């Protein structure tokens, strides 16, 4: 394997140091110290058993791991616990019932604070009503809701009763909801009448009605639809008698006392469908004890969490795994105080996030690089207009973060004093896997650095041999971990094929990402394998070229794809958005950008074509739809654009290109 240019080997300067050590004060009192690595290395399973024991178990486990039926893991064998009790009752019992669990901020500006006692009461009411509906442990519940407090209450009520939840992002279509409801055979759907989008109410229950159908076409598994009144915008809201129930009339009137039962450590906690670039979505299955153990552990140590003083904010939606793990289970299992914000970052204007940070004195802020680049595009005067001095730690998740965005995040949002944790993980891994420890790691901009204590990863070639530093290979996880997926719902073959067949002999989990180590042993995740281009036999990661382009002062955002090329196999085609105020100088600009990439990475990485565009086509989860860009670059008929946030973006690109 040849390696292309290395965004991580740029030479260090005073202005751009190669690595950023933790601020002294931060390191001096950090929750996680370097000893954690030694402890985990000395005895990995004992380490995880110790982490598990920080939770509240109703029955102790007898074995830490049973891997005899690999790849189907059993963690904390024989143990019994209740996940919701770990997130609620435990804190109330410890005398922390008056601590705010959730500072909720609605899109129109309404707010609601829920203490741990409040949340326990609400979850108990919901649990009592779900029991009344006849739901039994193991029955699946679909949750299709915007970011209202009831969404978290519903999730925790399911967990409390042992009902695996399947949260479906409220931006998905009726068809997407139906296929997920059918695949999981959900008995109950919980939704809202509508949701606020940029200040206006938009229907949501209507999509549920469409999804569930009527008569012969009715979803066979669904018995009830429980509806939270959020927008109250439609006097003629469709109502199916016998099936539909108002939350406030049912849950609202239920008792707020509920005693939980404990479930086996391997009891299914939730399904989460990953959109997958090909084929039908997979229902990734997570279970109880191992998942909560790793979530609680990573939240505490990676976010250096102080329950008494921190205010945590994860910007993800509950529809994605980041929302499950670090908006629901991670913060609440740690007794944290957190922000839950309903809307988009630019409603009513671009100041929204910074106002929330300022008003609630947020200490810990966890968002995706795409949002950081959006902030960069809006300009630093927006964050500069706010007092962000409460922040002490910043996090990044979801995609490789380019060094330019990393530095901007650190200096503009973090005032050069907040460590950044760039956390690599997946829906399938359940929890963070590769990340700096904020008080220990000398973080390099753009690198997730090294596996967390207790986690083991390798970078290997096609023959399962470790690659040399600087060479690109496949990222694999060579040891089971507590929050690992336990399967693909109803499809064991797909589970084995997708994740375990590539390195079956070794028994390694294939993550689907390319990665490399640099000369200092720092790990760089380069993006999905299918985002790796092959140009004249050289492997070049799309994210490396993107990173170089975004490193040019005129570029706000870039998406790069490998387009079929007669001579070189693939040719690099880049779509770029210019920063506001930068003049598009036509060919001169394009030539300059090409030269910039050639210089920053290598002439082999120089794009064949650069197209300046006003917007990039993104899925609702914020991922750039490279497949569609490929269609444009290769002059094909467009594929399916239905999952795009804004399909017209795409038409603009096409028009400019034709
Ligand atoms: C990518 C999101 C680089 C990666 C938690 C992975 C990252 C996929 C990072 C999983 C990161 C996530 N650096 N790449 N810090 N975090 N990824 O399932 O390609 O939505 O395989 O989970 O996102 O996406 P998913």
Automatic annotation (TrEMBL):
Pfam families: ACAS_N, AMP-binding, AMP-binding_C. It is an enzyme of class 6 (ligase). Residues 544-623 form the AMP-binding enzyme C-terminal domain. ATP binds at residues 398-400, 422-427, 513, 528, 539. CoA binds at residues 197-200, 322, 346, 536. Residues 1-12 have a biased composition (Polar residues). Its cofactor is Mg(2+). Belongs to the ATP-dependent AMP-binding enzyme family. This is Acetyl-coenzyme A synthetase. It comes from Williamsia serinedens.
């Amino acid at each position: 394997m040849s390696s292309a240019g290395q965004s991580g080997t740029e030479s260090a300067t005073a202005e751009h140091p190669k690595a950023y050590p933790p601020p002294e004060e931060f390191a001096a009192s950090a929750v996680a110290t370097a000893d954690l690595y030694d402890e985990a290395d000395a005895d990995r399973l004992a380490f995880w058993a110790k982490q598990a024991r920080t939770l509240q178990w109703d029955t102790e486990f007898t074995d830490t791991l049973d891997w005899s039926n690999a790849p189907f893991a059993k963690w904390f064998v024989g143990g019994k616990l209740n996940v919701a009790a770990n997130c609620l009752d435990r804190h109330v019992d410890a005398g922390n019932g008056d601590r705010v669990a959730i500072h909720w901020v609605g899109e129109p500006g309404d707010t609601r604070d829920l203490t741990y006692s409040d949340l326990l009461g609400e979850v108990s009411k919901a649990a009592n009503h779900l029991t009344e509906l006849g739901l039994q442990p193991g029955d699946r519940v679909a949750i299709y809701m915007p970011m209202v407090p009831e969404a978290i209450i519903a999730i925790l009520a399911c967990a409390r009763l042992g009902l695996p939840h399947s949260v479906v992002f409220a931006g998905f279509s009726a068809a997407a909801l139906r296929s997920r409801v059918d695949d999981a055979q959900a008995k109950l759907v919980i939704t809202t009448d509508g949701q606020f989008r940029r200040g206006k109410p938009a229907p949501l229950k209507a999509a549920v009605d469409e999804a569930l159908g009527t008569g012969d076409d009715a979803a066979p598994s669904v018995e009830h639809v429980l509806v939270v009144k959020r927008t109250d915008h439609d006097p003629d809201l469709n109502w199916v008698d016998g099936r539909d129930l108002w939350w406030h009339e049912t849950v609202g009137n239920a008792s707020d006392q509920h005693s939980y039962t404990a479930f086996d450590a391997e009891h299914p906690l939730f399904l989460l469908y990953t959109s997958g670039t090909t084929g039908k979505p997979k229902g990734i299955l997570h279970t109880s004890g191992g998942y909560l153990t790793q979530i609680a552990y990573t939240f505490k140590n990676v976010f250096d969490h102080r329950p008494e003083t921190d205010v945590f904010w994860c910007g993800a939606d509950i529809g994605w795994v980041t929302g499950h793990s670090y908006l629901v289970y991670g913060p609440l299992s740690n007794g944290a105080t957190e922000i839950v914000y309903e809307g988009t970052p630019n409603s009513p204007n671009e100041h929204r996030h910074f106002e929330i940070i300022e008003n609630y004195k947020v200490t810990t802020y966890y968002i995706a690089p795409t949002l950081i680049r959006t902030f960069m595009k809006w300009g630093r005067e927006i964050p500069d207009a706010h007092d962000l001095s409460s922040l002490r730690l910043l996090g990044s998740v979801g995609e490789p973060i380019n060094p330019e965005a990393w530095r901007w995040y650190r200096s503009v949002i973090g005032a050069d004093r907040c460590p950044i944790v760039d956390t690599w993980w997946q829906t399938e891994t359940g929890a963070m896997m590769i990340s700096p420890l904020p008080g220990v790691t000398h973080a390099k901009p753009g690198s997730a650095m090294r596996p967390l204590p207790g986690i083991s990863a390798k970078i290997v070639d096609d023959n399962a041999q470790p690659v040399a530093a600087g060479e690109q290979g496949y990222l694999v996880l060579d040891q089971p971990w507590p929050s690992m997926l336990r399967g693909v719902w109803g499809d064991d073959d797909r589970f084995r094929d997708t994740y375990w067949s590539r390195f079956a002999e070794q028994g390694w989990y294939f993550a689907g990402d390319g990665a490399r180590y640099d000369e200092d042993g720092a790990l760089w995740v380069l993006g999905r394998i299918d985002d790796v281009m092959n140009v004249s036999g050289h492997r070049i990661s799309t994210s490396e070229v993107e990173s170089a382009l975004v490193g040019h002062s005129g570029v706000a955002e870039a998406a790069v794809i490998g387009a079929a090329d007669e001579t070189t196999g693939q040719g690099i085609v880049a779509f770029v958005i210019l920063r506001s105020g930068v003049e598009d100088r036509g060919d001169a600009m394009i030539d300059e950008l090409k030269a910039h990439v050639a210089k920053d990475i290598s002439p082999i990485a120089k794009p064949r074509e650069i197209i300046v565009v006003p917007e990039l086509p993104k899925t609702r989860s914020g991922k750039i739809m490279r497949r569609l860009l490929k269609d444009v670059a290769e002059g094909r008929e467009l594929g399916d654009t239905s999952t795009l946030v804004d399909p017209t973006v795409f038409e603009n690109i096409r028009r400019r290109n034709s």
